[in-house]
Specification:
166 residues; mainly alpha; 8 helices; globular
Length: 166
């Protein structure tokens, strides 16, 4: 498997290339920026390696504790964490649940008004529904970032096997 440093290099090198390619295929600048930004975020902060104590995990700094239950729920490199589509969906759902549970506590601490996790989940759902195109673009970027991570994992594993065989 590639190191966290290698994954970072892949993300840093391919994000601009993705932006250029999307622009060349007629993407609007704002859409290209959203997809490329989500791709970069996926590579640096939201990758399949959040299932272990990785560079991405430690980048969450004070908030990294939110990923500890995720690490306990899933085995490293399972389809639920490293599958480009399923892994992205699982991380998004997990993160939405965490936000839905944590936001009411923060809201109460700041405003002394009770807000239920269900209210927060409905607000998140309403935002996604009202901003379907933006949500789709963000998901596309996150998916591409996860795919890039998985491809790098598979390529390095394949190369290591071939080199060991010779």
């Amino acid at each position: 498997m590639p190191s966290g440093f290698t994954h970072d290099i892949v993300t840093i090198a391919t994000a601009p290339a993705l932006g250029v390619a999307l622009h060349q295929f007629g993407g609007e600048p704002a859409e290209v920026a959203v997809i490329t930004g989500a791709y970069f975020f996926a590579g640096m902060m939201f990758s399949g390696d959040l299932d272990i104590k990785s560079k991405q995990f430690y980048r969450w700094r004070i908030l990294r504790f939110i990923w500890i239950p995720y690490q306990r729920m899933f085995h490293h490199r399972s389809e639920f964490t490293h599958g480009a589509l399923l892994g992205t969906i699982v991380r998004l759902l997990y993160f939405a649940v965490v936000v839905s549970l944590a936001w009411p506590v923060a809201h109460y601490a700041l405003r002394r008004e009770f807000l239920s996790p269900i209210d927060v989940a409905l607000q998140i759902g309403g935002f996604i529904n009202q901003n379907r195109q933006l949500s789709f673009l963000i998901f596309g970027g996150l998916f591409l970032g996860a795919a890039s991570h998985s491809i790098a994992d598979k390529f390095v594993s394949f190369a290591k096997r071939k080199l060991r065989g010779k």
